């Protein structure tokens, strides 16, 4: 099979996976009045408390303007708090509020419940095959990033 066919299959699979993930959690996202991208922002802040807007934008591969708009909405929902750095007042650090932590914790618990329920349907051999395939797919995409970073230097 040529690379164009593989590329098309990978793109279609990626689209389906993103759609399934978003659809699976739609009720939770709607309950908290957020989108899947806003959940990604909240989750990243939860994992990296005190992260700056620039660091967050780079991590999630978003431009700073788009990230700023996402954060404004999350602030209006009282999920995110901005604080000035004690070291450099020009730097803004991001934190989750109590409601923001509750949102992430609730959605993560739902994801965990889905995984546990479905994962237990597979035998050990199938689990190994799935993990191996996902690991290889991740390595495939990481190789693009490595080349892009080296080409940009």
Automatic annotation (TrEMBL):
The keyword Transcription applies. Residues 3-139 form the HTH marR-type domain. InterPro entries: HTH_MarR-typ, WH-like_DNA-bd_sf, WH_DNA-bd_sf. One of its GO terms (molecular function) is DNA binding. Signal peptide: none annotated. Keywords: DNA-binding, Transcription, Transcription regulation. It comes from the Bacteria. This is MarR family transcriptional regulator.
């Amino acid at each position: 099979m040529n690379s164009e066919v593989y590329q098309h299959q990978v793109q279609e699979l990626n689209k389906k996976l993103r759609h399934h993930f978003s659809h699976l959690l739609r009720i939770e996202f709607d309950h908290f009045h957020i989108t899947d991208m806003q959940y990604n922002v909240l989750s990243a802040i939860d994992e990296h408390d005190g992260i700056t807007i620039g660091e967050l934008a780079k991590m999630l591969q978003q431009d700073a303007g788009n990230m700023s708009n996402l954060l404004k909405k999350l602030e209006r929902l009282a999920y995110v708090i901005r604080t000035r750095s004690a070291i450099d007042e020009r730097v803004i650090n991001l934190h989750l509020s109590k409601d923001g932590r509750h949102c992430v914790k609730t959605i993560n618990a739902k994801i965990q419940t889905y995984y546990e329920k479905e994962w237990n349907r597979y035998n050990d051999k199938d689990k190994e095959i799935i993990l191996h395939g996902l690991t290889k797919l991740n390595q495939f995409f990481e190789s693009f990033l490595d080349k892009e970073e080296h080409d940009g230097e």
